[in-house]
Amino acid sequence: MILTTDRLILRPWTDADAETLYQYAKDPEVGPIAGWPVHTSVENSLEIIRTVLSADETYAVCLKDNNVAVGSVGLMIGKSSNLDLPDTEGEIGYWIGVPFWGQALIPEACREMIRHGFEDLGLEKLWCGCFEGNIKSKRAQEKCGFRYHHTNRDIHWALMDDIRTEHVTCLSREDWENEG
Fold this sequence. Notes:
By secondary structure, this protein is α+β, with helices and mostly antiparallel strands. It is built from six helices and eight strands, in the order E-E-H-H-H-E-E-E-H-E-H-E-E-H. An eight-stranded mixed beta sheet has the order 1-2-3-4-5-6-8-7, sandwiched between helices. It is globular and about 40 Å long. The mean pLDDT is 95.
């Protein structure tokens, strides 16, 4: 499936995106704060495309003018979320390359994922999380209408093999419809 916004194309990841993915995912400012390790090579990025980014409802965030992947947004529904959600709920995750920070591209992509989750997939509630200190992610969630729900302290995060604090936000279909 391909989704579009004013400035973006949200499309499935392909093997051809490996080089561009590596370009942005090798930056230590991107992955670790989002909960995943820095990519180590184009081959590593290709493996991530095939094993992680190929999941259902995971999209490359591409600029409309060139269709080049500059980030990712995904919707993990039910058990595919680490939040132990029912099948009527989903968790949105995202990241974007450093050169595109501050352009409100992730809120734009997330708003489309919210619309898609509620209108196309019939979900009742959407969740989002960010780790302690990830102010940019927190701000993106606020811009999209997510509200603070709870904090998970001292959780072991397997991808990074460390202990973290995660702040979790929520948006119900009802709240989204009332805001729109």
